[in-house]
Batch of 3 targets.
Target 1
Amino acid sequence: MAAGILVSSKTELKRREKLKKKAKSGGFESMNLSPNVFRGVKRKGYRVPTPIQRKTMPIILAGADVVAMARTGSGKTAAFLIPMLEKLKQHVPQGGVRALILSPTRDLALQTLKFTKELGRFTDLRISLLVGGDSMESQFEELAQNPDIIIATPGRLMHHLSEVDDMSLRTVEYVVFDEADCLFSMGFAEQLHQILTQLTENRQTLLFSATLPSALAEFAKAGLREPHLVRLDLESRISPDLKLNFFTLRHEEKNAALLYLVREQISFDQQSLIFVSTKHHVEFLNNLFREEGIEASVCYGDMDQDARKIHVSKFRARKTMLLIVTDIAARGIDIPLLDNVINWDFPPKPKLFVHRVGRAARAGRTGTAYSFLTAEDMPYLLDLHLFLSKPIRAAPTEEEVLQDMDGVMSKIDQAIANGDTVYGRFPQTVIDLVSDRVREIIDSSAELTSLLKASTNAFAKDLPREGLHPIYKNVLGGNELTALAFSERLKTFRPKQTILEAEGEAGSFGQWGYVMKKKEAVHEEDIYMGQEKRSNDLVAKEEMPEITSSKEKKKKVSGSKRKAKTFKDDEYFISAVPTNQHLEAGLMVRANEGFESNRHCTLPSPSL
Ligand code: AMP
């Protein structure tokens, strides 16, 4: 008997110790969840809470309001869904709507609905989805089923509230503003304030947001009761398992650099998310990849819902290894495991960078972020590193490497090992080679040419040209104003002739002008022939520069299609050190074109 008591007290002790350990572990076990909710979490495959879940869930479960700064990929959705399920527990037939989740986009709302159903599979809670794009009638029917939870976009929710007289939010006990910064930047502020007025005082309110702009902080002050602010340490917001690679290049080299990365740098079994600024860039890159035999998935804001679903599920099923997205579209996509993030356009805000790359190197996996940087992006790079409190270094120049090969390289290796980030160039030979190929592909496809134009224009924000500042209006006399106007016009003047032709007319370079005209005539003929045959050896690198003196001719050349086999042929490959002076002159003309197109891209890419 005594032995029996001893055994049972020993077992009890062990059980208690086990419970204590679990409670200390900070795992889901320590959160005292009801069996049905806990089973749902386990079934979903969550073993340990993510940092944002560990920090927010105990506070939410205790009933307090919370402002949590968390990005997509941090596990934020479960952080508010699990406590919600715990609070609601089961369906209450006459209880009315007890929880309301507001999402900025239809996709995010759908994603949240999916998670709610999965996590709440062992409860009988009823959910209604109120988002634009679905019929109002079917949503009326859902509302008639007495849902416990509404997941909605603000616009559609307001629409229902104005249409249905007896619809009320007075029974709501638990409100979540998900991706609140996005809700605000998408212009829902007014609706959100209106929704607040329809709620009762004794509700619990949660606000999840990647960033906390001042308008949002004001909103939180007004709508939340002594909220706890939860944010992860800045450093830990970028996974330590994420490698950061920054490449400096010129805007017009980006396509070549991307093709090279995808083809040569990134292993074929890795998945990458490519961030660009606009849907035109998404379409352009998608077409470019297709021409190169690479199938990618795409996703942008106003894309057709069915098409978007197909694209994303292909990527999730690993049938495609690339997903090209814009920032807004990326918010509603759930991709649990990702190897690489490529910033084709550098994000102008550090938090956006953190948000984007937060999708890689998750759950114990490693990952890499590749970012392209043009000269205009450099201040953003510095800004990002100030934000991350992380040192950044330039890769040693070729001279430095040559002078002190071991010393410089070992120092940079040491810096990388210490966690410093390094920015450097792509090998120019690689860029040149692939650029040629890219140019060929674009020139041979009318669709790509027009998509390229659209994406370049999407960047060019046409600000009206400015005149002299009014505070100087009295400083200048009439003559000076005329002189200024003339010199302003001169700045935009583009001569139709080459310098040699112009000089030739003036008399001093008569012989050269004659040569230029003759050369032009000969080459014009060549070009027409080349266009007809399409596959002839154009040796265009040598011929193009001289004929670019007229826009008309330039168009004709760009329409020509060169054979793929020529671009790798050593005979026509442009060396870094030009051996031919015509070629060099030609590159100068091209460089000018490059500057022109670059000019459109100097404005920072649009943020969220
Ligand atoms: P979210 O940040 O809510 O978009 O979640 C990103 C991804 O992380 C989703 O695929 C979730 O299913 C997943 N996730 C959330 N919490 C956990 C967890 N505790 N363990 C593993 N995966 C999780």
Note: Residues 1-7, 534-566, 575-608 have pLDDT under 50 and may be disordered.
Target 2
Amino acid sequence: MYEDLQNKVAVITGGSKGIGTAIAERFGKEHMKVVINYHSDAAGADAAVKTVEAAGGQAYAVQADISDEASAKRLVDAAVEHFGDLDVWVNNAGMENQHPTAELSLADWQRVINVNLTGVFLGTKAALDYFLSHDKQGNIINMSSVHEQIPWPTFAHYAASKGGVKLFTETVAMEYAAKKIRVNAIGPGAINTPINAQKFADPEQLKSTTAMVPMQRIGKPEEVGAAAAWLASNESSYVTGITLFVDGGMTLYPAFQGGKG
Ligand code: NAD
């Protein structure tokens, strides 16, 4: 546990399942107060609130589409109204869909970019606005992916969004470092969440994904939650502008394993 996190207030976007819920649970274990944003799954958000409370924290669920500018402000207001402050903002919400690029519609491109990249910008802007106007040394964590680095054919819009998150994170980190606002990203590899449920239910696909991971296993959402807690805490006080890969070594060019190549 990180003592400095106790009673800190966090907003987590897309927190009703998967990695978002795992981060919320870990923040609960740190005795934090968490605004859990959800898009449409109210029951999932209620369950996430109970999970945080059972872990020792406090939580409150707020519906909002994070690709809409007014939403981010509403989430800041909810943090202040319910918990009196804002310290940590986690831009976690994300989506993906698969299309060969020649068949990718503008609508599908925009849907993914709007959530994965514009949503990160809007959340960051709202958090910065609060941090700067309250002279706070706030903390922003953006959920990127190994695909900010590894190309992913038939997911060009997803890879472009995460590549954008990488340089956005680095740029904003540099811009506000002197204000002691830290901005980092997390790059998960293959993590066992609903986004991957169909893929990992198929033994062949599970095997082929696992083969791309030097540690030879799929990651757990709580392993991403642990990275988020460390980045949010003062234990990472001199860290800004990085992507912390939580990927079992997936970004290490596993095809070269055993001296191949
Ligand atoms: P998930 O599908 O389980 O959760 C994604 C969450 O984002 C859901 O709660 C969803 O409702 C929310 N969301 C989507 N659009 C939204 C919107 N417009 N407004 C508010 N919320 C919205 O997926 P996950 O695996 O938990 O993914 C979380 C993040 O981690 C995403 O950014 C994803 O790209 C990233 N990621 C996941 C993996 C993985 O293997 N699971 C790997 C790399 C990166």
Note: Helices lie at 18-29, 42-55, 69-83, 106-133, 156-176, 197-201, 203-210, 221-232.
Target 3
Amino acid sequence: MMKSLLCWPEPVIRVQSLAASGIREIPERYIKSPSHRPSLNNDDVSQPQEVDVPVIDFQNLFSSDRGLCEEALRCVHNACREWGFFQIVNHGVSHELMKRTCEVWHEFFNLPLEEKQKYANTPATYEGYGSRVGVEKGASLDWSDYFFLLLMPLSLVNQSKWPAIPASCRELVAEYGSEVVRLGGKLMKVLSMNLGLEEDSLLKSFGGEENVGACLRVSYYPKCPQPDLTLGLSPHSDPGGLTILLPDENVGGLQVCRKGRWLTVKPVPNAFIINIGDQIQVLSNAIYQSVEHRVIVNSNEDRVSLAIFYNPKSDHLLEPCKKLLTKDRPALYKPMTYDEYRLTIRAKGPCGKKQVESLKSPRQSD
Ligand code: OGA
Ligand code: NI
């Protein structure tokens, strides 16, 4: 492994502590260049325009009523094509479990700093309590802290790296994780069918049910005295397969880039927000594309979100599905393992869609 990935290049500052210190102005490191600030595309940052991202009744996708099922499949397909994002309701994950898992993470982040520091992460694996992605010295920083942990494959799970306090945390995360990963498997089937592939095709390309990788990133976006100068999370596309996000039910902040504009997502109660990652873009040969998104912060309330990333087996070679290739539309991407792909992001941090674009076969990019 590259030496530079073993430790952080400078002392880590917890954004939550910074926010709690009562500063009126944020440090230089968090100030984005004018063109990257949230205010540019919004007339009024304090009241960003909220949009409705397509909502799909997940149950209908598996209904015996063919009309309902086909309609729901079509909605997912269109959302994947046009937004790269959709929301699902009636997804089968217990609302009570969702709520309790959110609460337990609120409690974790409200613990004294010393307790959280026991889990301080390093860029070697990113597992644990962190405050930045990327190891470039002097890089611009985002206004958030996070906790990152592995849920799958089971052989790599190490619960001793998960918070021991609150006492119910490990149990809740394990239960929540397994429910959401199961949901991820169903989504993979839906996307396969919509692409005209065998139902288990995408999952097989990911290395099969027992080999897929899944991880949880809980993000904590503290309230910020100058929200119009910074971002909670810089523009990026998710590097993996699919993301299943449980946004804060009280505080908005997720923005999706659509036709060159940043739109704030209006979360539907008890829904998950699903988005396409770079590896689905590769497998589908860009029939589905990952879409850039970012998070804005505000001066009134902290925000907590839970993202589960459903990813390929890390050493599995991924390339566009043969069945989707035609003479007019040959493979756009060269084969690569997810391990290799992820390395760049782990070194450089969020970089919009640069990483997946750089994968393009030379033939295509001239
Ligand atoms: C992510 C992400 C969005 C959010 O973690 O990749 O995009 O609302 N999170 O926290
Ligand atoms: Ni993301």
Note: DSSP finds ten helices and 15 strands in the chain.
